[in-house]
Design brief:
It contains 5 helices and 5 strands, in the order αααββββααβ. It is an alpha+beta fold. The protein folds into 2 domains: 68 residues, no CATH class; 104 residues, Band 7 domain (Tetrahydropterin Synthase, Chain A, 2-Layer Sandwich), CATH 3.30.479.30. It has a 3-stranded antiparallel β-sheet, covered by helices on one side. A hairpin with a 5-residue loop joins β1 and β2. α4 packs across α5.
């Protein structure tokens, strides 16, 4: 992009007028010629710099092709009823969990309140998996965010093993330790 400054051609009447006005006339005339050039240069440099940083320069490399897996379509959000699990040292965990499934899970059934839920046999499998994963754990490891996140990751892994990779995410909807 090339910008040229506008040229100012001298007017034949200009010297006569500037002589009449004195020093004030000359100062305004010179300043008026440069005032349009400086903002134009600043704008041009800004546009060129912005184009460079936005990847518009000719030397920029093309982005590598995307290696993202095909789109996974979100399926139903399936809850498990609240349940109590025995922890170590005579402590208890009351929890309710919802699983965000992909559209690959086709065994969801319509629940009593209009939402979808696991089929009865799948709900039993999930409850068993929750008990097997959480029973006997130390309550101290579940009280902080890092501990709960680790448990979520483990639950998602185990649920994906049960449902052949159809679990997108795990959400605790109730989590109380006594």
């Amino acid at each position: 992009m090339t910008m040229t400054a506008p040229t100012v051609e001298p007017d034949a009447t200009a010297p006569a007028e500037s002589e009449k006005k004195g020093k004030k006339g000359k100062g305004k005339k010179e300043k008026g010629g440069r005032s349009n050039l400086v903002p134009a240069v600043v704008v041009a440099v800004g546009l060129m710099g912005g184009g460079y940083f936005m990847g518009g320069s000719g030397g920029a490399e093309a982005a590598p092709p995307s290696t993202i897996a095909p789109d996974i379509v979100e399926g139903p959000l399936l809850p498990i009823e609240p349940m109590t699990v025995n922890l170590a040292a005579d402590r208890y965990l009351r929890l309710a969990v919802s699983f965000q499934m992909t559209d690959a899970y086709v065994d969801a059934v319509e629940g009593e309140n209009g939402g979808e839920s696991f089929a009865v046999d799948d709900a039993s499998r999930v409850q068993d998996m929750l008990i097997a994963t959480l029973a006997g754990r130390d309550a101290a490891g579940l009280t902080d965010v890092a501990g709960r996140d680790a448990v979520k990751g483990e639950l998602q892994e185990r649920a994906n093993a049960l449902f052949e990779g159809a679990v997108m995410d795990v959400f605790f909807t109730d989590f109380v330790i006594q």
